[in-house]
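Note to self: user wants both folds in one dump. Writing first protein now.
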Amino acid sequence: ANIPSWLEDLDQQKVPIVEIDQLIISNLENILEKYKLEFFKSNEIDIIISLIKDIISLDIRSIHQQNQAYVNANNLINEKMDQTFKIYIDNLKIEFIEIINNHNNN
């Protein structure tokens, strides 16, 4: 049986780089001062940030979804576009953007 190339390359998948802006971290600290989390204490900001990065870097979407090209309103295939996603950690709803660098040859 032939193995599809996208399945053969699973071990070679790159782990995405997750960056969180310092302004976001400051906002999160302010939120944690006002609102109580169920599983974390407000002074555990480093653990929370690490967990957020770990979860986002896992990218649980299928390989097909990760590689899927963007189809515009006219059904024309464009390069992949930046996308917004949401995850929930404890009582936090986190929205993040996957920034696509279409001009990078990596």
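First done. Writing the second protein, which came from a different request thread.
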Amino acid sequence: MEQEGVSIKVAGGLKGAVRVASFDATVGELRAEVARLLGLSDPCSVKLIAGGRNLLDDAKALRAYNLTASSRVLVTKGAAAHSADVAGAEAAAGAEEVRTAKLERLRAAADRMAARGDGRGLTDRYEFSLE
């Protein structure tokens, strides 16, 4: 009797293929299945990489990472590697948002100064700095 679902080829810490229900299955489901096959009790200690991208978001569908039947996923294992990667990615995203907001405020100030009607906009010396 043939198993239902799709096979995803894996390499690295686990070789062969891992079966999941479909490409609509989540990264978390794939991570849990890989951890089970490796005999690990903590799925968070499994790191998954496909197409050069870390599969960090356990809630995302495999399809969202463009995984297909011909995809190969690299499996590595370590102590809570996944949760550290997620924390680092969230911190980087927060820092990028702050930087973007500062740049938008700086541009708005420069635009207002350039639009001044009193002739002082571009003749005065101004120093801008991003902290």
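Dump finished. Worth passing along: Residues 33 and 55 are 14 Å apart (CA to CA).
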